[in-house]
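call fold(seq) -> tokens
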Amino acid sequence: MAIETTGKTIDAAIAEALRQLGTDRDSVSVEVLENPKSGFLGIGGTPARVRVKRLGEPEDAVPPPKPVKKEAPKPAQIPPAQTASAQPPAAAPPPAPPKPSSAAPSGAAVILKGILDRMGIPGTSITEKDGDRALLLEISGQNMGRLIGRHGETLDAVQRIVSSAVNRGSPERRRIVVDAERYRAKREEALVALAHSTAEKAVKYNRDMLLEPMNAYSRHVIHTALQDNQYVTTHSVGNEPQRRVIISLSGAKKTAPSRW
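ret:
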């Protein structure tokens, strides 16, 4: 009889199989079914899996499939009133193509659910919104603060894992956005408000304003929010993860009103 076991390493999986069989390494044959994978940031890894069988034992027998009995077709029954002059029935319209089920999760949602379970955040609900520009996976449930992390750093890491898994081996890269309780939309609104208020201070006090370190997405929101502002310009300085946005006065500052 062959058994399958798992472990952090192939040796650990084999040792577990030997323990269950009560034998030693020289008395069995080993087939490696899956090598261990460490995952990303300690999340999403898979253990090694092996099949171990005692030497000399026959292969597990596979029972033959049971024959399927075919029922004889029943003769068509025609109503008595139509036996004399039966007219061919009207052609039935072709069946409508099935609509995609919103209840069936996509591969991205399945991967995300597995990551959340490994992070110890069960009982979550994932809503998918498939748009032209990106696939949005919206998460709701408890412990969302733990999932989001400081300034969305944990949420960004989860998004990178899901995007990497979905696009692995695919010729066309699909943009994946993972959000929790509309955090990204709320964060973007807060960043836009921060950009405008800081730009006003730069004009009011006639000096450059240095914002706190931000990730690439947050800096992009700041730059975009002020790109049409004629009184200030923006640029980034420093190295990741301490890269920051500086809001500087432009040449039009001398004509800037006290508030716009």
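Residues 61-65, 97-103 have pLDDT under 50 and may be disordered.
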